[in-house]
Amino acid sequence: SCPDFFQWIHHDLAPWRASGGISRAALEEAREFAAFRVAIIGGQLYAELYYQCVQSRAMFTLWGLLLLLERFPAGAVPDVEFMFNCMDRPHFRRSRYKSRAPPPLLAYCGSRDTVDIAFPDWSFWGWAEVRIGAWGEEASSIFHGSEETRWENRRPRAHWKGNPHVGAQVRTDLLACNKTDKRDFGADIYVQNWIAESQQGFKNSKLSDQCRHRYKLYAEGHAWSVSFKYIMACGSTTLIVQPDYHDFFMRGLLPLHHYWPIDRQDMCSSIDHAVKWGNSHPKEAEAIGSHAQEFLRKDLSMDRVYDYMLHLLREYAKLQRFKPRVPEGAQLLCKSAVTCIAEAEQLEFLKRTETSNSQTSPCSMPPANDDYIRRFKAQESENFRAARELRRSRLVVGNKNKLTTPSVNGEKKKKIGKKSQRS
Q1: How high is the pLDDT of residue 62?
Q2: What share of the chain is helix, strand, coil (3-state, %, to 5)?
Q3: pLDDT at 208 over 90
Q4: Share of the chain above pLDDT 70, in %
Q5: Which neighbouring-strand residues pair with 255?
């Protein structure tokens, strides 16, 4: 069966299920904020472009959809018509649509306050501009790189490397957590200069070479950041600075099981505590990193990414109250049409993602289970509370406080390491 987080497909589509479906009027209302419209009819993909996306986002997103159609047998992907937002942030606020269904808009991320439908972002097929390969390729490389240095032999500090100049206050604040002559919060913060890196051939940006710290920090950019999956892939203990946005798979992760939550309002002190706690409880801290890496291996393989796309489009199609049609200004897209307009650098990355038809059926999508979502949210809240308690108690080596493995499905909780208890 599909990973549990696929239940969020039902949750994300709930506003339209509750209102009787997706009307053409609602679809057209979303056009103003869409970068492009996609119509899949009879297994063929048509795209109508409205504005230029940043870099090659649109190209790689449409390429991913073409590979989806190629991957599964004819008819597996239903006739469907949807709008796509390729900006960083979701657009439609939930509070504005209490009495009617919102316009349906697919996007790279969502949030608690918005209703845009989260869909896999372009980087799963590559990010040519910064020389990052497709997820399957990068994941394998990072997993291999993570095996070169065991967790206990890594630098016992937190690592972050990125661009703080993206209009995100959280990243600006993170710079203050770097080590100085007067204070040390246990964090090594590096500013990534992408212009300089591009001029040097990105020789200092190989993701598989960045698994040398016990702890890896994730801080959002202008919205969610594609860096999250690469950070988690190291098997280090991921420290997530309280995010506002989520991509399609982040809601499958639980604090204290897959990552350690960092308080945004007291960031440096929170990082300092997380590092000290982890160094005092190495087995528990290492287990958190291992759980995250196992999640990526099992539940975020490219097989599962394509399955998520397929099931999302299938569930979306069930809600359509109109017959999908080819838009007047749309172009029929095939792989050769995309590669024909791609620049040499982009073409290299596109070619590296070509895939043959799937040899296995997609995972089995369970029916909507609102109880699962409630249990997940309750467990998430409980684990956040436990993390706050751990910080307040200022745990030291040898005390009796223990950390338990979270459970969403109601099974008996298992203990992490020899000294495990929830506090």
Answers
A1: 98
A2: 45, 15, 40
A3: no
A4: 88
A5: 259
Contacts (Cβ under 8 Å, ≥6 apart) of 245: 89, 90, 109, 110, 111, 220, 223, 224
Phi and psi at 334, nearest 5°, equal -135, 170
List the structure tokens of 106: 């697919």
Window from 45-49, 75-79, 207-211 with minimum mean pLDDT: 207-211
pLDDT, one tens digit per residue, over 367-399 is 999 999 999 999 999 999 999 999 888 644 334
All structural domains of the chain with their residue ranges: 4-129+301-356, 132-300+373-393
Cα–Cα dist 182/138, whole Å: 38
> What's the CATH code, domain 132-300+373-393?
3.40.50
> How deeply is 14 buried, as exposed, middle or buried, from its count of CB atoms within 10 A (0-12, 13-18, 19+)?
middle
**Burial label, 407 (beta-carbon count in 10 A; 0-12, 13-18, 19+):** middle
Q: What is the Cα–Cα distance from 418 to 415, expressed in whole angstroms? A: 8
